[in-house]
Design goal:
about 200 residues; alpha/beta; DHBP synthase; ten-stranded mixed β-sheet; 7 helices; about 20% strand
């Protein structure tokens, strides 16, 4: 099912449909400030398992609505907090040590998570309405390892059977986030992407 949601003024009714799907342990596709993503509620082990089956190998990120919410699920020291504050919301994935609040299913034997706060009101509004973060991963074409699908209607054709809902927030971007590891003494850029680190 396609749900049209505008970034400028996200529809309460459509957001409610998205949240109801997530509360039923479903997967949802939504736009971000970089590529389209597919995700589920952090509270849903069943949905995280389904997401892992679709994604195959690889790691998930966790999408938050605010830095204060990040601090509930990650260990954020002063240096990391300053970097987050300067760069978020934005097209970054920051690697941080996870706290015990992050379920084992989302961690998959790791002790760190990728943190996202997109500069797009739609996913942040979804997280706020849901009341918990989203476990998330980029929507990629199967044929191309690093090719991202940008058209929500094509995404719906491709993933419609695997997900409850595709949020149509307009044509997406092809450039993924910049990934920055904040677990060491100095920030380390693991992947150059859309954002320029401040």
């Amino acid at each position: 099912m396609l749900a049209k949601i505008y970034e400028k003024n996200p529809s309460e009714r459509e957001l409610k449909r998205v949240v109801e799907a997530l509360d039923r342990d479903e997967l949802v596709v939504y736009p971000t400030d970089s590529v389209y993503a597919v995700g589920c509620s952090l509270r849903s082990p069943r949905a995280i398992e389904r997401l892992r089956r679709i994604k195959g190998e690889g790691e998930f990120s966790v999408l938050f609505s605010s830095i204060s919410q990040v601090a509930e699920y990650c260990r954020v020291d002063n240096a990391a907090f300053r970097i987050l504050k300067r760069n978020l919301p934005g097209p970054f994935t920051f690697i941080l040590p996870a706290s015990s609040r992050v379920p084992e299913k989302a961690l998959a034997k790791r002790r760190t998570i990728g943190v996202r706060i997109p500069d797009n009101a739609i996913p942040r509004a979804i997280v706020e309405a849901l009341g918990c973060p989203l476990v998330t991963t980029s929507v990629k074409d199967d044929d191309e390892a690093e090719e991202y699908t940008t058209d929500p209607e094509l995404i719906h054709e491709r993933y419609g059977r695997d997900v409850a809902l595709v949020v149509d927030g307009g044509i997406g971007d092809r450039t993924p986030t910049t990934v920055v590891d904040l677990t060491g003494d100095e920030p380390e850029i693991l992947r150059e992407g859309k954002g320029n680190l401040d």
